[in-house]
Every structure is written in structure tokens, then in C-alpha cells.
Write a structure and sequence with these properties.
Length: 135
């Protein structure tokens, strides 16, 4: 494995994740989060930085899994990887939170759909970085 390329891919995937997370949770879902204000920790915003830190090892591992299974099949490989990974991560994540916490079912569905879209975008990003260099 080319360590330089791997680290570049993980870094770019991390940046893409941060941007899409901001758009989804900081823009699109903001009003829904505000409506559920009473269920969140009162000090939650002071801990948000921890998401950014925890995303670092996640992106390193996700990139590693992608690289180890890389088949050189183009963007559709990234879409397939993202769809499988996103479904695995979010089918339990979104709906377990709906079962456990007083969030709405539509919010859980949005978490699932947006989460899968995020991982598809991440998979496409990795596929683009790992595509063969044109000669």
C-alpha cells in the first residue's frame, strides 16, 4: 500500500465528511434539531469538537477498508462501497436512536438517508483518488 496516497485519500475523505456533515446537520436539519431542543444535553455544543476528532480514526479505517478491497472499477466501486458501508452504519445507528431517544421517525429516516448519501460521497471520493493515473 502506498502510504502517501492512503493518507491523502483519508485526509480528503475527512474534509468531504466535515463539509457534508455541516451541510446536513448545520443547515438542512437545524430546524428539526431546534424543535427537539429539550432532549439534547444542555452542554452538547461544548462537546461538538469531539465529533471532528473521532472522525479522524474513522476516516483512516474506512479508507483502509476501501484500499484493501479496491478492485479498480471506477466511480461505481465507490458508490457500491458507500452504499454498503452506509447501510451497515446507519440502519442500526439511525433507527437505534429512534428506538432509544424521543426523536421523530422522520428524523431517523433522514439520518439514515443522509448518512448513506454521505458514505456514498465518501466512497466516490476514495474511488476518484484511487483511480489509475492516465498515461
Amino acid at each position: 500500500m502506498n502510504v502517501k496516497r492512503y493518507l491523502l485519500a483519508a485526509l480528503v475523505a475527512y474534509i468531504v465528511l466535515q463539509i457534508t456533515t455541516f451541510v446536513i446537520h448545520g443547515v438542512i436539519l437545524t430546524n428539526e434539531y431546534m424543535a427537539l431542543g429539550s432532549i439534547w444535553r444542555p452542554d452538547m455544543m461544548s462537546w461538538m469538537w469531539l465529533f471532528n476528532v473521532l472522525d479522524i480514526p474513522s476516516m483512516l479505517l474506512i479508507t483502509y477498508i476501501f484500499v484493501k478491497g479496491y478492485e479498480n472499477k471506477g466511480i461505481m466501486e465507490g458508490v457500491r462501497f458507500g452504499l454498503m458501508l452506509g447501510t451497515l452504519m446507519w440502519i442500526g445507528g439511525a433507527f437505534a436512536n429512534w428506538i432509544t431517544f424521543p426523536i421523530t421517525l422522520p428524523l431517523a429516516i433522514k439520518w439514515f438517508v443522509f448518512g448513506v448519501l454521505q458514505t456514498i460521497i465518501t466512497g466516490i471520493t476514495l474511488a476518484l483518488i484511487y483511480r489509475p493515473k492516465k498515461v
